[in-house]
Protein 1
Amino acid sequence: MTLQLEIPTNEVVELSDVEKKQIDALLQETLYVSGASIDALKIIQNHRGWVSNASLLALSKYINLPLADLDSVATFYNLIFRQPVGKHVLHPCDGISCDLMGGKKIRQCLKKQLKINNGETTRDNLFTLLPLPCLGACDKAPVMIANKQLFELLEEKSLPSILNHLQQEHAK
Amino acid sequence: MSHSVHAPNNPLTRFITQDENCWQLNQYQMQGGYDGLKRALTVSGPAVLDEIKESNLRGRGGAGFPTGLKWSFVPQGDDAPHPKYMIVNADEMEPGAYKDRLLLEKTPHQIIEGLIIGGYTLDADIGYIFIRGDYYTAIKHIEIALKECYDNNLLGKNILGSAFNFEIHIHTSAGRYICGEETALINSLEGKRANPRAKPPFPQVAGLWGKPTIVNNVETYCNLPHIINFGASWFKSLGRFKDAGTKIFGVSGRVKTPGLWELPMGTPIGEIIDNYAGGMCDGYKLKGFLPGGGSTDFLLEKHFDTPMDYDEIGKQKSRMGTGTIIILDDKYCPVAMVLNLVKFFAQESCGWCTPCREGLPWAQVLLEKIEQGKGELSDIKQLEDLCKFAAPGNTFCALAPGAVEPLQSALIYFRDDFELHISQKSCPYCSEAYSEDINDQ
């Protein structure tokens, strides 16, 4: 039996051909369909920026896994976004090694500059602020990940140029 | 088994050079990479297992379980179920731990060689590298390294002309600390929520998809090629105390030269902090330290002579954990430090069992109260009770017992600080650690 979630009726999502092709490739590799579920969610997120209820439903139908199972997985992991995010997701580290070296000030400063709180997105849709625990670069603390890049030895005064740099990457 | 004579004293990091391409196959092979695999393929799997057992290698992920013993529980012989799985746990997310990233980025082939040797030893069929999703460079290097292996007959059918077949897949984690627990990791690979499983059955007998499965840390696998190449007695001779081999140690916090170093097992803690990390930064004094990442008990300067050896650190009521030391300086609030850690573990708890799901958030509430100057003396007693409720044996996995280790030791060593917060109704360290809204929203 498939449990139905409350899905907004006006929103229907069809998986794109590219998404289907990539998910098919995953299914080729796995012994059991459920083994592909996390990677399939990532494929959808790669193409759409986040995983909406409607795209969850579309995936559920396409790979024939219960919607509730997929939703339980999608809501468990930190890097599957169940809300829209901005172009760049900023992950300042809030692990203890960064905090010992002033990480908290860095996070405060980011909030002030972007005028958003943790988990929020700027109005221009450019930045989402989502602190992550220990990013594994503790000897270079404080650190932040953005755009698959690791920014090390952060200082408050270096933040504007980093944000600028990211903004320009977006403009390209 | 015969062994190479030119044995190094820094096996794990000897491949890391100034050359930024030192991680690639040709460079690795030029320095003797895959010699361990070649040597392993000349003898039987059980003979390799004997050598690993003889070496006294203990798991480098934190628990320190003897690797050879762990592996010996995997069913062998013609009746054994297949496929058998070998998994590298590269989901490094322990607060203050960053040693696996170095090995993943700089020596991907060392990990892969260890994994193939492991597969050969236990007659396994499929390997997985379960890697943290945020480790972008490491993922890229592992992916390229795997391709190099397939192109050079180091993976696939009839590896290096032998009868052994083995394939390796990479899984990038969607991010959750609990995925580092081996049965939670297996659930995650099966596409489920990463809740730990009840044991028994142990993964060695019924793990991934119900088949025999081994999960070991990155650094554990890295040791295998060298043990096979240079022999168990060489490996044991590397340690300065009882434990065998070398280990990647690290120090973070207010020290002069934070970093990572490969040193003999049993190197005294004080030597690592003073000689390698350069001692404390000017203007800062050492107040205490966590010897092996965020889920180990605090130790003090009086423990500097203790060797980094699993049992010796255990005698001091802490754990070697990941071997990455986190320094608490005299200007950072110990309550704030413990709060940061408890908050992390509360957030990363999978929510499966009660002491963890309910206990850790409640400990966070009490610590926030104390840090804000709103605490009462009875809160300290309650925190002590919560530590007992989350003790080993009361929980499904090791997350909650580890989570309360810094807290329970801080309540002993830094009790004055907790009481001062309560009596003066504010944080005595306020400026540095906690100047803003406590919830960091």
Protein 2
Amino acid sequence: MKEFERTFDSLYEGMQDLSFAGVRNWKELHPGAKAVAFFPVYAPMELVHAAGMLPVLLSGAGDRLDIQHADSRFGSFICSIIKTTMEMAMTGHLEPFDGLLFSSICDSARNLCFVVKRNYPQMYVDFLHLPHSTSESSVDFLDAEYRRIITELERLGGAPVRQAALNRSIELYNEQRRLVRCLYDLRAQSPHLLRAWESYVLIRSGNLMPVEAHIEVLKQALDYLPTRPGKKRDAIRVVIEGAFCEQPPLELIRLLENAGCDIVEDDLAIAQRWFTEDVPLTGDPVRALAESYVQRSVYSSVRHDFSKPRWEGLAEKVRGTRAEAVIFLIAKFCEPAYFDFVLFKKKVDEMGLPHLLLEFEEKLFTFDRLRTEVETFVESLVFD
Amino acid sequence: MAEKSASEYRGSIHQQQKELMLDWYQRLDHAAETGDPPTVSMMISGNCVELLEGFGAIPLYPEVNALQLAIRHQSLEPILAAEEMGYAGDNCAYVKADIGCMLKGITPTGGRLPKPTLVLCNFVGCNTYVKWFEHVAAFTGAPLYVLDVPFLRGDQPSQADIDYVVRQLKEVVLQIEMLTGRKFDYDRFRQSVAYSSEVEDLWSQIKHLAKYSPSPFDAYFDAITLMGPLYVYRGKREGVEFFRAALNELKEKAQAGNGIYEQERFRVVVEGPPPYPYFRTFRDMFASWSAVAVASTYSTVGGLWEFGFRHDPKCPFESVAMHMLAQNVTNRNYLQRYDQIRRYVQEWKADGVIIHFVKSCRLFSAGQGDMRDYFTKQLGVPTLYIESDLEDPRYFAEAQTKNRIDAFFESLEHAKHTAGHAVFERSR
């Protein structure tokens, strides 16, 4: 399985590809079939998959696209992923997609939805309201909202979405989420067998490929990794919190690891771990998806369950992985993360854990200052 | 800044407004002392103040507190206190001012503010509200209910959207009953909805008076003054009386051909909240050009009534839901806002659009560059884009803002002289 080592590089390359060659290939192999992209954070991929389409989760453009046009539409104090997504639209990069969906994560993303809609009327652009409440009525509402989206997808695809297809899609995504959870367990238990940047590449690449193909990649990884030669190292176990939407450059994750952190948990590319357990395959599949979102989602700064505060979710994560510190990794101008930082920090302080706040942008070219901050933080813990 | 007191209309309604708002603060002070009446924290946008009347409860609006502080030049201290505890420089400064005040015991009038009986997050479009009220609940220990209002994705809400909001409103009723031990008075609620409907009709007529040339009031700066009573007293008899008096006063002025300046020179539509810490300074920048706002989107945050919507006492819950879902600018989608401004420009006969970007509020500001593109390139309407903040005094660049405003009106004036109104007729 030596060849699996090379997989990381090829997956990373695919993940970086702004021409979406994988999506274009898929469309060539499936003439007439549609591809539908989602803006982060979570999306009910199953609905699109069951409609015979390719669901793709976008992640901005990193440092691979200069902002030349989007600044004139979204001005100061707006996070980078909004601008790079707009820039991708304005420069034809989203051309392989027939649809683009946004959801109720933040005000900037919501306005972006309608700006894209005005500028690209030929594309199916929709806004999905994911409830901010776990009230009983929320499930009924989301059930209706998902059915509305299905109707739109049926119009786009020209064919009905059948219950059997929905069940099959849920089964596949359950499998993908289960394998991703296994990968996280493996990493938390044996960080020397799987570095965080590697696990990140394994998972995030799945946002761009058919779920069936991603399941195969994950299976191969889980077969190989336990046998991988790796040496335990003296490092601090940390949880990363706050990078759930705009993604940090891979180099930043590596930098944290090289500075002496074992990242045992994070909220990067969290869509693939969205549910705490499988979506039930009994009963109506749309209802099951809606109920799972409202009642069995992981905690996240963009999803609100007021019966269980998110900072308790973070506390459980820290305890469950025996983490020794929390690093708040927050995208510049990300308001949901900024707000949550205040109450998360309060909780982490109460737990007596050290924490560090780092701000990033997907487009970062110099890492020196961040490296110094992280190294100082790690040293202060090691020599404490 | 130059003294421009003559540039501004001060009628008896301004004095009455002040008295009504002081009376409200006194009642809040009383509630803080005695626990009576119950108080409910709410957001201005799409507020359901009528529901509170069913309990004789009074609203507590953190936004009103925050803006009052800013107008009185007292917002920086609490903002800094909040930043000290971890809030980011780029967090909404309304939230920071509110939380900072809570922790430092500062209030706009010096009176006390009660711990709310219920923190009711009437989330309408603003994701910051959800965080804000969660923080208020966490810091005060008061119970929290988040009323999840689906964003208006299409032109109108679906039946599922309406049912969802109505069910939650009924849950709120049960919760307040449980918290206060008071029974919900349905008739009083319905009466309140009826008062709201009257107030909305009067307010809408006032908004339409700005179609007169000259306009008898400024539909941005003066409308903001009238917004306090609109949100606190909408569902009450006092509200009806106040807005009836306001309408009479302004109608008389309009019919007599009296504007707010000796001669009205420019008519504009303003998009976005004002820079409250420099409210007067900002107003004077328009006054020096005798420019009047004939319409504004900010004055429709709490409700959009000039296009016909009214609460309906025949179906009180449904109409409250409808107001929250579809009849306030914050829960309507961005393109509906473009259309709202377009109608203002055309029907209120404006010369241009002022887009005021405020860094605190991404709901308002994210994408305003595209909005400008739409008005200038697609409709041929002159626009001015300026940036500052609604609460944080550190983001107001006075000289630069003045320069831009001066340049805008100079070019409008030039266009008027050289081409008559031809430039603007294209958009109509």
Protein 3
Amino acid sequence: MAIRQTPDGPIWRKRTTPQSIALWFGWLMLVLLFVLAWEAMTRNQIWAFVWDAPEQAADLFGRMVPPRWSYMDQLWGPLWDTINIATLGTLLAIVLAVPVAFLAARNTTPSPLLVRPIAIFIIVASRSVNALIWALLLVAILGPGLLAGIIAIALRSIGFIGKLLYEAIEEIDLRQVEAIRATGAGPAQVLDYGIVPQIMPAFAGITLFRWDINIRESTVLGLVGAGGIGLQLKASVDGLAWPQVTVIFIVILATVILSEWVSARVRAALI
Amino acid sequence: MSGPAVLPDPASEGARRYPRHWRRPPLISDGRLRWAIYAGVLLYLVVGIGAVEVNWGRLSEGWERGLRFLGGFVEPDFVSRWDDIRAGLIESLTMTLTATVVGVLISIPVGIGAARNIAPSPVYLACRALIAVSRSLQEIIVAILFVAMVGFGPLAGFLTLAFATIGFLAKLLAEDIEDIDAAQVEAIRATGAGWWQVLDYGIRSQVTPRLIGLSLYRLDINFRESAVIGIVGAGGVGATLNTALDRYEYDSAAAILILIIAIVLVTEYVSGWVRARVQ
């Protein structure tokens, strides 16, 4: 806060003069950066393609309706695959992420100097790469198919589940752990009776949340060949079969909404 | 415990032997439901895993490739495709920045319109509908549509990211406005301020720190997404990565991945630092 003295008396202001100049300069820099970035981005842009975008959009919409509902018959199989990718991927991620989370949490890690940084690194690396990029890699290595999709979903989910779970482990009530230890319990029993019951609700919530996200992500994994309904989407887009694309979009939207509803119901029942 | 409270015969077995073991209560108390759920899960696992067709021949070939790919991580090749990588990264970064700025500028009015406590109900419904559409469509699907409309290149990516930003930021901003302290708004209104002045002095000052924090967080997310939407032709480093993998140039692909992870870490760290200072 600052007071500026004027001939008419003091005036209240929020910032001192140097502060407001620094702030103004910061905004100027942001605007400058934006203009430069815009210039760099649109240097090779052919604007003729952009100006007719409204017509293109109208044209596209015209091709997309009416949806070809008969295509639905071919979508049930891929839809089942999509749900399998998400569910089995989430299960695989749980198996891998739970030990990582216990190794990463400060109060359960066997060695804060040696093991914890490795576990944290696994979590960070898994989180910074999108499931589609994992799928891209795995399709190149394992070949196209469901397996690549499941592993891609699992690899991406390790970071998510691991991070939220280790934060939950770090926030547990230590008195309960102490109480179990006081009964003469060994380390495994302390884990089983002192820590696990405390993190179970968080664990269930995190897993359901991630399953919900994974359903969403697995619908597009097929774009890079990792199985599921995305394969049909890619085939239809590449073949310019827009009425089929509409059907696929509607199916994806319905699946996402349904999975959100299911996970909300299960969460309400469990927690 | 229900049932008739009959005291056991002191001479019987049950009264003399106190329980020496405690068993934790099961998660689902109804036994039949519990076993039904276990059976259902088991059945699903059998059917679901059975549906995964694994081509073992292809997999054994894959091991060798996987090892080569891991080798690429040990010795990433930044040099031979550097021009492509640089172009891709610049596209990604410029797309991220412009899309975040434009997205934030559009989300502010949309977010204000979607706050129930200040917007009239037709505006509220329209803004909430826009947010719902933006949130339920994934980036990659929006990117497919924008590429079909404006052609390949970073402009399609920019439009995609800006559109996705609106759904994210406007929703959180609207919820933040709905949660503000009404007493401050009341105080400003009591001075005789008009609608704009109430917005400026009563509401803006309460939500600005969080808005800045959320914008920086979204900048993070947008960079991550910008690395992906290139796969469908919307510009950015994802296209470069896709090409490198198509050519089986695992060392270049590893270099791109390392750069993506590094940039994500830096932006996450910087935005976390700024957020901690602003909030």
Protein 4
Amino acid sequence: MARNVTQRRKILNTAAAWTIGLLIFFPILWTILTSFKTEAQAIADPPIFLAFDWTLENYGAVMERSNYSRFLWNSIVIAGGSTILGILIAVPAAWSMAFVPSKRTKDILLWMLSTKMLPAVGVLYPIYLLFIQFGILDTKIGLVIVLMLINLPIIVWMLYTYFKEIPGEILEAARMDGASLKEEVLYVLTPMAIPGIASTLLLNVILAWNEAFWTLNLTAAKAAPLTAFIASYSSPEGLFYAKLSAASTMAIAPILVLGWFSQKQLVSGLTFGAVK
Amino acid sequence: MSLRNSAFAATALSFVTAGGVFAETITIATVNNGDMIRMQGLTDDFTARTGHTVEWVTLEENVLRQRVTTDISTRGGAFDIMTIGMYETPIWGANGWLVPLNDLSAEYDVDDLLPAMRSGLSHDGTLFAAPFYGESSMIMYRTDLMEKAGMEMPTAPTWQFIREAAAAMTDRENDINGICLRGKAGWGEGGAFITVTANSFGARWFDEDWNAQFDQPQWAEALNFYVDMMNESGPAGFAINGFNENLSLFQQGKCGMWIDATVAASFVTNPNDSTVADKVGFALAPNSEGVAKRANWLWAWALAIPAGTQKEAAAKEFVEWATSKDYIELVAGKEGWANVPPGARTSLYENPEYQKVPFAQMTLDSIKAADPQNPTVDPVPYVGIQFVAIPEFAGMATEVSQEFSAAYAGQQTVEEALAKAQALTNEVMESAGYR
């Protein structure tokens, strides 16, 4: 039975939701606003919110100094490549764990997740040496592999959770109709899990896009993505906050737009199975 | 093979072998400081002279330090030139990680490098990195506020004078703090500042047997003096202020005095960014009355070539170009004398054009007042003024500065912070085998 919600409560809930939303969004908004200020206005005290002379000079300076399109392309390839590769490996893995579990399945899942608990810097040197050995330092393929591996536990976990929601009987029915294993996964399971796969995909693109430890440490000039682009504008000796904000805005803009247009899929995927 | 193909191959081979050096693309790791960015903008001049092209990897200082340390210690070869400082250079040079710069050309005039810079970037007399710009620390003060307080800044003041002047300049109602100093944790931030302050009170990090000295009265005196003065006349929340925070406060007219890197002089006197550009005076970093050492540090951002690079010849050409007298002339011609990289060459300070820059002489005097071989009143077993040039220092000093920052913020007493610093430093030195 639906609960009676009073008008007053509705207004309060809406106001609370907007307040929390704006609070979360405020740092991004401030970064965007700062990118249109001069360096002097960026550090003004009291801070200037909107009443300043809007300028595009920071964007001009950033575009002149850095090859933005190369950083952007590297980000697209690394984030997209690692996510697709991860999904290709994780779908069969999650299928087997969800529908053909063994008595060790839970342990394997927990073990996979435990690899995320290790601080990344702890394995920096071994990974760096492996990269030198294989000649993949400062290459996109090297980063695609590393980011795929570090995000794989999350992808498998998410897909496993979604697959568990799908009744096994449907797959059994498909098998009885003569579907092969490949057809079962490709034509029955995958279409049913599309919202889950889509949200996993989006979340992993965002994670890979924002990953800043490995992308900074395993690249130099050729494969550096947008995280390195932002880092190049941070300075401990000099106030370049407006330029740093312009670089940050340019780096987050693509993922912000992607997130905005796919928010419906993201929300439906993330709440998949939450309400039974 | 046809005759035509043979002729083509022979011609190509002769091009490759005749010159010895041909156009290369070199990768340079650097920091995002004003002088470095200017250098990036002038790379075309280097390419026009040599034919070599340059790819830049610009990173924030701490990220850069971690990135290049990983690469050089594993012989990764990701970079052909690295921007490093006075702390890393002697250690890496001793490890054989850097190409010695002992065959620079006669036109380069290596003897023109400021002696303090040359010695700080050498190991056993061999130069391992060429200084791009150098700095010490000095006092920057508001001439108008000093006058209003009825005081006159001596060229070489004492800490006691500074404290008195800071109190006189403080005007809480108008949000003016008599003095702004670093308090932020980090060995290169607040750690560097408090170390030189302690030097100027007669303290030192270690005695000659590598025993920590934080239990000595000079450290307590220095730290208590700093905390009391900052509580009296410093900005609120000074425990989290670093270079940038103080620069921002000073540029907005909220500091009477600021003691920090000499390189800041060009920022605070730049009318585009600073509201007090025409009211800034300079003086030598202070000392406690009767103590022979002043609170001067010495630092250089320098260009070094990692051993094992495949492009050593081209990298050397770049290092010579970027740290040459010609480069200084190039920057002066395009951006004015106030914007040339300071603190590296003696000839710059002999140049009558540069002598007109208001902070030029004080920068040179400050650099000259710093001696990394003899940084403290009592003898020490280490080289370095605001740091101790041993590999363990960065981690250890960061922890010590965190304890000090907690004391600045009032989370513990100065005595507690010093006791913790003493214990953790001795522990590190013992496990590293120094004691």
